[in-house]
Amino acid sequence: MAAIYSLYIINKSGGLIFYKDYGSAGRMDTNDSLRLASLWHSMHAISQQLSPVSGCAGIELLQADTFDLHCFQSLTGTKFFVVSEPGTQHMEGLLKHIYELYTDYVLKNPFYEMEMPIRCELFDMNLTQAIQKDRVALLAR
């Protein structure tokens, strides 16, 4: 069973610009993944406003019985979130590495238009390698 079920990247407006499914069971169709991304963007924004702590960055971890949802928001407002097995540790490091891949292979691509869906082969290849390395590291722990 995979430690990481899926990865989502949401632009600052709440639109889903990248989705990758790594789990074998319970795959979602395109409409469901768009709804989930929009819902997460809204919950994240509401949590920032309702937090009693000033300067709150929003929800970073949502734990449920069957999954954990880890989120990283960049300074530009782009959100990266991973749905993983319950109790999966060290996802912050993986999310930051995915953000680095995003800046290296997507944002530096002269053909990429900001806020549009990500269609970059180099990003996909390096992302797959990063996820596989993370899975191997999780198995070694």
From TrEMBL:
It is found in: Endoplasmic reticulum; Golgi apparatus, cis-Golgi network; Golgi apparatus. GO terms for biological process: endoplasmic reticulum to Golgi vesicle-mediated transport. It comes from the Eukaryota. Coiled coil: none annotated. Keywords: Endoplasmic reticulum, ER-Golgi transport, Golgi apparatus, Transport. Pfam families: Sybindin (PF04099). InterPro entries: Longin-like_dom_sf, TRAPPC. GO terms for cellular component: endoplasmic reticulum; Golgi apparatus; TRAPP complex. Part of the multisubunit transport protein particle (TRAPP) complex. Belongs to the TRAPP small subunits family. TRAPPC4 subfamily. PANTHER family: TRAFFICKING PROTEIN PARTICLE COMPLEX SUBUNIT, TRAFFICKING PROTEIN PARTICLE COMPLEX SUBUNIT 4. This is Trafficking protein particle complex subunit. It comes from Rosa chinensis.
